[in-house]
Amino acid sequence: MKLIRLLCFLYQHPYNRKKPVSALLRFVDWHIRKRLLHRPWTHRVWDSCEAWFYSDSRESMFLAYNSVMDWSDFLFIKNFLRPGNVVVDVGANIGIYTLWASTCLRFQGQIFAFEPDQVNFDRLGQQIILNRLDMVHIERQALWNEPGVKTFTVGKDMENHIPFNGVEVEDGPEKTVSIKVDSLDNYAKTHHIERIDLIKVDVEGGEYFVLEGAKNFLSEQKIVSIQLEFNENLGHGNVLGAETVKNYLLGFGYHLYEFDPGMNTLHPFKLFKGMGQKNLLAIADLSLVQTLLKEKGTDLRFGCAPEKNQLTMKRPS
Questions:
Q1: Are the C-beta atoms of residues 211 and 242 closer than 8 Å to each other?
Q2: How far apart are the first and last CA of the chain?
Q3: What is the pTM (predicted TM-score) of this model?
Q4: C-alpha span between 110 and 126 (Å, rounded)
Q5: Which residue has the higher pLDDT, 91 or 18?
Q6: Could you report the per-residue pLDDT of 177-190, keeping only the tens digit for each?
Q7: How many Cα atoms are found within 13 Å in the side-chain-facing hemisphere of 261?
Q8: Gap between the Cα atoms of 158 and 202, Å rounded
Q9: Which residues, in sequence order, are CB contacts of 91 under 8 Å at separation 6+?
Q10: Are strands 148-153 and 86-90 parallel, antiparallel or unpaired?
Q11: Which of 97, 82, 77 minimizes the C-alpha distance to 202?
């Protein structure tokens, strides 16, 4: 029964339905390596870069299963970004979104990736070294509404977060660490970032606070597209509602949209109770983004950048 459930999950993904045989081979390969190898391994992804895979990482598992992770999100990024753009990845985890964005930029531009968890930060760094991505700047800190120090959970893989509003950490104080935080406005000022083409914010319920730290950028609409995860089902209850985030962004002229990968276009999205987990886009200049999308098709294949060379790297312990 467990195997049937896993296969049903596997073939829910649009990419796997298009390529069922290769999806099954990836699925089998993941489970064989996970059980037989006692160390991370590398594998070529998207015909343009390599990735480290870690058997205890759900992000590695999703990449192995689905190849393109979040179907609509990855398609939007691919069709929207252009070489030379600036991308900010808030909550980068082991760096799969960062790697994808680098291929969409054709390895030309800048990516700033933030990951406060030490284990995931180290793995993020290994991905960057493996692919010689000099364009990527990684920071072991979180973005929040102001600079300072915050408590951060550990050992929760993709669900690590900053507790706020009196929410207790259910596993006790031994499961938290203190981390450095900064605001996007302050970080951008010290690193001379004047415009952001895409910012992905996935911080397990704290998206409002990240955006609150970007008031200067938002007030001048210097962020073209904001990719947000809304999740009503977070088990830790550590979340400010999507309605709060929506109203905050609306004050700066940003509206919520859902990307339609089949039509390669954006549709206005109205929040509703019980929507569960939803990835949405906040955009101020819709016509600009729609124009950029229409300039590209929906082909997910990527060629290798000819100037990039393979790098032999010692396996991490």
A1: no
A2: 35
A3: 0.89
A4: 18
A5: 91
A6: 999 999 999 999 99
A7: 17
A8: 10
A9: 114, 115, 200, 201, 202, 203, 204
A10: unpaired
A11: 97
